Amino acid sequence: MLLETVINFCVLFTFCVLLYSFSYKNSIFHTATPVLHGIAVGIFSGLIGLVLIQTSISVSEEIILDTRFVVIVLSSVLGGPIAPLISGSIISLSRMGFGDFTQTAVMAGLNTFICSIFLSLLALKKQVTLKNATYYFLAISIETAIFLFFLAGFTWDKAWQSIYFLLFTNISFFVVLFIAKELEKHFKNVELVENLSETDFLTGLFNSRKFEKVSQDIIKNKKDVFSLMIIDIDYFKKINDTYGHLAGDAVLRELAVILKDFTITNGGSAYRYGGEEFFLLFPQRDGESSFQIAESLRLFVQNEFVITSGKQKVTITISIGISTFPSNGVGMDELYTCADRALYTAKRNGRNKVVHINQREEARKN
Hints:
This protein has helices at residues 2-23, 34-54, 68-79, 82-97, 103-125, 133-151, 156-197, 208-221, 236-243, 245-265, 287-304, 332-348, 357-365; strands at 57-58, 64-65, 226-233, 269-274, 277-283, 307-309, 312-314, 318-325, 354-356. Helices cover 66% and strands 11% of the residues. This is Diguanylate cyclase. Residues 224-359 form the GGDEF domain.
């Protein structure tokens, strides 16, 4: 019995680590669609349940003990309401078939299925988390212990089996719960480090590293049109020289807030690429619509942007160069070069302007 207990727990421990890694949103196995993710978690949990039943602890000819309910509860935490229903269905069918469809096996399988339905219904009303999962598990394990107690009639052996079941499953659950919480902390720390590595510390916008990653993903798709904007603050060096670098930093932060609001409103994303240069990406925006967005942004900065440095008010203007995929290039290097040329044209023609690369090419032809 001791060997079976150790094996069952080792399987459960491995399951906990694998399932949590599987459910981590940046995992290659993670599915962005909640329903599909829940189905995947449910199937994976159900398969682990099959292994747990095969390595279960035999306490009599018909009664076996395992940690299937730990799996079902954890699947509801990581996969939502649909996961325990799927995992419970797989495990209950497996339990019914374990031992040639005896009455005990069928009853145990039905009990597992009923508990999984109960958990799914609760998860629909309130999300199951690592914090409240304990209450759900205790309710299920106590109900199952009572079921086990009365399954074959009262005997002292059955009473001890019920007590052993409660001890074994609850110890297993709380150990797994501890492991899951530690994994949650670990993945949150990993996510925090990843976010920090992709965020500009001064403005809070995404940085050049994130831009390279996102832009390459968009290029790989190569299905929808999108536009790239390069924004440069006019005479930014003069602001630093006149008001100091603290004022210059304040200008960058305030402009970043405006850019973030504009990109969120128009379905884009904003990046500080370096110095006073910002990149904006607008998926599904052609040259004309991106030009209109850029022009409204330019006017807003011209008319509304103001910060206070000491007793003086600081205002700025911006110049914007735009290129569009695929008309101006099919690679990010091409698009960057085109947008940079458009920005150069805007600055050469007096600054505080928006230029799309197509306009520049037309002007050069004329």
